[in-house]
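Review form for a predicted model. The reviewer records the input and the model, then writes brief findings.
Reviewer: anonymous (R2)
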Amino acid sequence: MKKKISRIVSLAFTACVILTGCDTPAEKVEKASVNVIEANQKLDKAEADYAADVETFRRESEAKIIANEKSMAELQAKIANQNAETKTEYDDKIIALQQKNINLKKRMDDYRADGEERWEIFKIDFNKDVNEIKESLNTLSAQCAKNTK
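Model under review:
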């Protein structure tokens, strides 16, 4: 008799565990819809973060391009007093740098967001090009200062 009661109790316990552990189809659908909503919220946040990153980078890049333009104008003012040959040489270099700066601005204006991975690559390449122009301007400015003395 003890065995029978313990079997009945264990069967009842097992049945309870099984029944409480199972979700009804409605509960499964509800959980799935909650998961979808959460995933959509995460996606929306990621897209917003991406758009904000693009906008911030555009503003920063525009500031760098403007700074390059100012440096070029200052350099042109410095070379105005150079002899004709030196002035022509510097003017040619400045014109080439101005064209690169214009091309950078156009690249930024033409960029259309097409994925985070491509965006990261674009930012790296763009920053490299901006820094090359800045370094060229610094070198040219140092050469000009040396020739003025």
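Findings: DSSP finds four helices and no strands in the chain.
Further findings: Helices lie at 2-21, 25-79, 84-110, 116-148.
Recommendation: see findings above.
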